[in-house]
Amino acid sequence: MPAAETSIWIRACGWPLLAIAILGWPVKLLPPEVAREVVAGGRRACEDAGIPLAGGHSIDAPEPIFGLAVTGVVDRAHLKRNDTATAGCRLYLTKPLGIGVLTTAEKQGKLRAEDVHLARDWMCVLNRPGSRFGKLAGVRAMTDVTGFGLLGHLVEMADGSRLTARLDHAAVPLLPEVLRYVEAGCVPGGTQRNFDSYGARIGAGIDNQGGALSEVQRALLCDPQTSGGLLVAVEPEGEAGFHAACAEFGLALAPVGEFVAQGRYAVEVI
After folding, report:
1. Number of domain units in the chain
2. I want to staple 211 with a disulfide (CB 3.0 to 4.6 A). Which of 112, 126, 204, 250 is the partner?
3. What one-character DSSP code corresponds to residue 20?
4. How far apart are the C-alpha atoms of 242 and 235, rounded to whole Å?
5. Residues 106 and 120 in one domain
6. Where do the DSSP E strands lie in the chain?
7. How far apart are CA 264 and CA 237, in angstroms?
8. pLDDT digits (tens, 9 = 90+) for 80-116
9. Residue 15 — pLDDT band, cuts 50, 70, 90?
10. Residue 57 and residue 155 in one domain
11. CA 167 to CA 17: how far, in whole Å?
């Protein structure tokens, strides 16, 4: 059960109260027994998050969809925004990229049996660390990486903060075997649409003079994520506390970039 549904309250460092399920089901194509299994998975995800599944709504739909609408409470003092980064903040990503690539490989029938768990396991990881990060003064800005891809969310953070994000593409964590599937052409259609929407805001190359992203860079950095990780901007003085908080969740993160004074591009990929 993907964890994206709970990202809003976790990112805000609040606590959830309850969830409502939303189920769309092709009643003439799939049996109700399968729908019950899907809802049961949603209930287990709620149990993992410590909240009740209080009810829900279902509709007849051409293809199966399922999600949770979560209601929670947040302390305003711990609210984290995506437009409050400062120059010098280092960027951290809590989950590897490539979920869109691997799920596309599965849709195309190209995903090897031994790789089926790779995206699924990460999608099932709740973004619990965000609730802890929200209490850290050194965390200046935070968001979750979803359908716009890493670059799309970086553009949002950079524009909102009136800065430029400098991204080290070699430092960005990737799911195992994802490059194999990129080379096999397993790239979601949303990847190109993402790039078309913000590609002009991206500078690439060591001189950051607008060199083009390689096809592989574009496929990974614009890859739409389902239940993606948290993108966190941490000021240097707060890094010790941030890494201590990461250790509480078994995370050992390395920076993937930093914010610098606003330049020609919203994001520079080096």
Report:
1. 2
2. 204
3. E
4. 10
5. yes
6. 14-25, 53-60, 65-74, 90-93, 139-144, 163-167, 202-204, 230-234, 257-261, 267-269
7. 27
8. 999 999 999 999 999 999 999 999 999 999 999 999 9
9. confident
10. no
11. 36
Buried b (16+ CB within 10 A) or exposed e, 43-69: bebbeebebebeebeeeeeeeeebbbe
Sort 38 into a burial class: Cβ within 10 Å, 0-12 / 13-18 / 19+: middle
* SS3 category, 82: coil
What single-letter DSSP state applies at residue 174?
B
Handedness of CA 188, 194, 199, 205 (dihedral sign): negative
Which of 58, 76, 94 is where one domain is finished?
76
CB atoms within 10 A of CB 138: 18
CA angle 245/250/254 to nearest 5° reads 70
Domain end among 57, 76, 95: 76
Two structure tokens written together for 166: 């400098």
Task: Indicate the Cα dihedral angle 187, 229, 148, 111, nearest 10°.
Answer: 10
- Return all residues near 65 (Cβ < 8 A) that are at least 6 apart: 22, 23, 24
State how far the Cα of 74 lies from the Cα of 70, in Å rounded to an integer.
13
Give mean pLDDT, residues 171-186. 96
Q: Give the C-alpha separation, 219 to 178, whole Å.
A: 10
